[in-house]
Inverse folding.
């Protein structure tokens, strides 16, 4: 599988920043497709979805994979990836569970949007959003969308999402942002709690 080198390689951080920027340009042209209620039809209906756009660090993808497996969620990785899925760090973080993770890799966000139910709700997570993640009513079939580690989601996506742009509240001035896999865990488990827990 063709991929960028892992984040331990020399000069990778600069390369990943460029890749993330290029992916933003694709995301800016994709409609968020906001609706009030999801339908129980189409691709991935009935489960929660974790979407990581251009993730850069294999550890975070591995951790998100374990979260998906633990909760019954589906993990979506949108290219470019800053690592190979064969990377030892992905396998190490996901341990021997990785082969059981429900994961799908997409060429771009538009491809994912086209495959999703037209009525599916996409929640955009960003420190730049104004609405707290616990203030909304999550439902099965929802997509929780996270940007890359170095830059997050593009401002255009956050703006277009309107009330579907969410933030995880933090004490003012304490820290700039949370680790990506931590943010995934916080949001995902709130959605799981609201949708009836884990059976």
């Amino acid at each position: 599988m063709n991929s960028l080198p892992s984040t331990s390689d020399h000069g990778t951080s600069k390369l990943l920043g460029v890749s993330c920027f290029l992916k933003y340009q694709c995301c800016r042209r994709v409609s968020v497709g906001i609706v009030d209620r999801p339908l129980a039809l189409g691709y991935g209906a009935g489960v929660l979805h974790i979407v990581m756009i251009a993730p850069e660090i294999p550890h975070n993808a591995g951790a998100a994979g374990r979260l998906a497996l633990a909760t019954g969620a589906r993990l979506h990785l949108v290219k470019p990836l800053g690592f190979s899925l064969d990377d030892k760090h992905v396998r190490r973080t996901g341990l021997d569970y990785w082969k059981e993770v429900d994961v799908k890799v997409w060429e771009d966000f538009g491809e994912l949007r086209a495959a999703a139910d037209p009525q599916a709700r996409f929640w955009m997570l960003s420190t730049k959003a104004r609405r707290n993640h616990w203030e909304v009513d999550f439902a099965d079939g929802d997509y929780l969308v996270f940007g890359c580690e170095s830059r997050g989601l593009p401002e255009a996506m956050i703006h277009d999402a309107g009330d579907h742009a969410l933030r995880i509240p933090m004490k003012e001035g304490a820290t700039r942002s949370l680790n990506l896999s931590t943010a995934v865990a916080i949001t995902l488990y709130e959605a799981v709690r609201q949708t009836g827990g884990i059976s």
In short: The radius of gyration is 16 Å. The chain has a mean pLDDT of 80. The CA atoms of residues 44 and 141 lie 6 Å apart. The beta strands are 49-53, 74-78, 103-106, 122-125, 131-132, 143-146, 165-167.
